[in-house]
């Protein structure tokens, strides 16, 4: 594998070998055919087996749909997920990932907007699809957690349905079980397609934390670029010895999210790694028991996930001797979390920054970094970064604070069916994140532009306030928002969840903050609640906090 970074993306051996994601998939399956690609509930799926099943599904898709049609995929981490994604790509079909926690309204919006003709849905949320307007959907395939798991899968399905009662009753006219379709096409191979590198691979809908979600158009070129960009950033130990010892990565983040999708479905695939899929990371007992069975080299997560693991005693007893990478993204990792993680695992949290619209990787910490700094690292190869003021002017001063703007081969071509492309006339993407770049070139995210609170003309960034409040020993987690006070003045309010058995008063928290924050940043209101609302990857839903 190449380690030197050529001047141009097109000069990399990787781009010369892979003209689209289908060629990438086929090449990886040939090179690593005897290895395990994905594992779920102890059942392994090799690269070779995956290739055969992808061919079978792609054959069925080609017989029923046209190149360029959209297929919506709505399920948690399951062994069938990568099969479905690669099968769709091989048939020239665009993948539309959908959060399985979506409500009827959210599901209907994505189906209507994407004009998806096929919906693949996990039976546990099929009741939501059953009561939804399926718009342009022509066929529905239903998956189960036990698909591809053999006899063990039948037991898992029985427990899921009868014991845990996770499968509500539903009826969808004409729906077919996915496994029946797959089995009926066993041994089939699709016709080879001439897929352009500029063809759309994914419509990846933004999280919709504000307003209605939009579909970011990600091409084969975008994803291929991000695979090699990610590869150039990782510790060489992740692939130097991979011929002798396969690299094992724990995947608790949902594959339908762009972070896990690129890291596990593509980047790990490139180095012949094994992704151990965690279907329900909130079930910490099962999660940790799965980790215990592996000498894992990598884990990907977000701050809230790492916090949850650190607060679970059995996690601290795991063997971390092989752990090379603790990758964090999706939200800011807190210094307090990073310190605890390093103490327990002897591994530095390796923070990355990215967005749905950038496939997602934009920047990442240097793998040689020996301690957590709070930075999201240096720009990935072939990525340009600018910090701009409110008038759109580039700021060249070190540590100047402004909006982070990105340009590179991983940036989307635009938003699906939207008059707003999200890019300026020179193909710069305005991220909406406020950032600064220090003297070493490392990027620090200050906060989201839309989340900024203005107190008496001064800017207050919720991330900073949250980081301070989280240092209080009684605080488990918190969320900071701006609320309207007298004379329409904006005030700082913090919602707090306390550790079990801990107590704290509003005055105690405010006094604690006064010691660490400038006066205008100190919260004026504190509210103790039982749970902080979050997105599917653990980002605080400040909009919901404000509404409630």
Automatic annotation (TrEMBL):
Residue span, AMP-binding enzyme C-terminal domain: 464-539
Domain of life of the native organism: Bacteria
EC annotation from Swiss-Prot or TrEMBL: 6.2.1.3
Keywords of the record: Ligase, Membrane
Gene Ontology terms for molecular function: long-chain fatty acid-CoA ligase activity
Name of a matching Pfam family: AMP-binding
GO CC list: membrane
Keyword Ligase listed: yes
Membrane topology: Peripheral membrane protein
Subcellular location: Membrane
Pathway terms, separated by semicolons: Lipid metabolism; fatty acid beta-oxidation
EC main group: ligase
Keyword Lipid metabolism: no
PANTHER family referenced in this protein's UniProt entry, alphabetically: LONG-CHAIN-FATTY-ACID--COA LIGASE
Descriptive protein name: Long-chain-fatty-acid--CoA ligase
Native organism: Candidatus Pseudothioglobus singularis PS1
């Amino acid at each position: 594998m190449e380690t030197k970074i050529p001047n141009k993306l097109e000069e990399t051996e990787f781009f010369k070998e892979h003209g689209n994601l289908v060629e990438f998939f086929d090449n990886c399956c040939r090179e690593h055919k005897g290895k395990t690609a994905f594992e779920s509930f102890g059942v392994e799926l090799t690269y070779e087996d995956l290739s055969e099943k992808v061919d079978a599904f792609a054959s069925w898709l080609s017989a029923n749909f046209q190149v360029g049609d959209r297929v919506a995929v709505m399920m948690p981490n399951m062994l069938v997920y990568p099969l479905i994604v690669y099968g769709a790509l091989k048939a020239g079909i665009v993948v539309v990932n959908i959060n399985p926690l979506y409500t009827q309204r959210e599901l209907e919006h994505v189906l209507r907007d994407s004009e998806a003709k096929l919906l693949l849905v996990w039976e546990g949320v099929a009741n939501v699809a059953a009561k939804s307007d399926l718009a342009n959907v022509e066929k529905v395939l239903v998956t189960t957690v036990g698909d591809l798991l053999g006899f063990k899968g039948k037991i898992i399905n029985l427990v899921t349905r009868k014991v845990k009662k996770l499968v509500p009753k539903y009826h969808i006219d004409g729906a077919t079980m996915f496994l029946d379709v797959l089995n009926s096409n066993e041994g089939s191979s699709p016709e080879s397609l001439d897929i352009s590198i500029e063809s759309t691979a994914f419509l990846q809908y933004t999280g919709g934390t504000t307003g209605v979600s939009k579909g970011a158009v990600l091409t084969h070129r975008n994803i291929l670029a991000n695979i090699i960009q990610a590869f150039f950033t990782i510790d060489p130990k992740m692939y130097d010895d991979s011929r002798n010892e396969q690299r094992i990565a724990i995947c608790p983040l949902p594959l339908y999210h762009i972070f896990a999708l690129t890291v596990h479905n593509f980047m790990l695939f490139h180095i012949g790694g094994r992704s151990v899929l965690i279907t329900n990371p909130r079930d910490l007992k099962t999660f940790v028991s799965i980790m215990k069975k592996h000498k894992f080299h990598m884990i990907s997560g977000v701050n809230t996930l790492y916090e949850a693991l650190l607060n679970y005693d059995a996690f601290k007893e795991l063997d971390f001797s092989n752990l090379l990478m603790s990758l964090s993204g999706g939200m800011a990792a807190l210094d307090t979390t990073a310190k605890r993680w390093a103490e327990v695992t002897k591994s530095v949290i390796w923070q990355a920054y990215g967005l749905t619209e950038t496939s997602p990787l934009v920047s990442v910490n240097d793998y040689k970094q020996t301690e957590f700094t709070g930075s999201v690292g240096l720009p990935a190869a072939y990525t340009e970064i600018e910090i701009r003021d409110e008038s759109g002017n580039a700021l060249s001063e070190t540590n100047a604070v402004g909006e982070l703007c990105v340009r590179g081969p991983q940036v989307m071509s635009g938003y699906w069916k939207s008059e707003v492309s999200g890019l300026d006339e020179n193909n710069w993407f305005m991220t909406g994140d406020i950032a600064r770049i220090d003297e070493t070139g490392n990027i620090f995210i200050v906060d989201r532009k839309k989340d900024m609170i203005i107190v008496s003309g001064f800017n207050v960034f919720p991330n900073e306030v949250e980081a301070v409040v989280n240092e209080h020993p009684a605080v488990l987690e918190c969320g900071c928002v701006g609320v309207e006070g007298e004379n329409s003045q904006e005030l700082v309010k913090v919602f707090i969840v306390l550790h079990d058995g801990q107590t704290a008063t509003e005055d105690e928290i405010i006094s604690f903050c006064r010691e660490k924050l400038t006066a205008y940043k100190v919260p004026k209101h504190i509210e103790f609640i039982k749970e902080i609302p979050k997105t599917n990857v653990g980002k605080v839903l400040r909009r919901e906090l404000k509404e409630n």
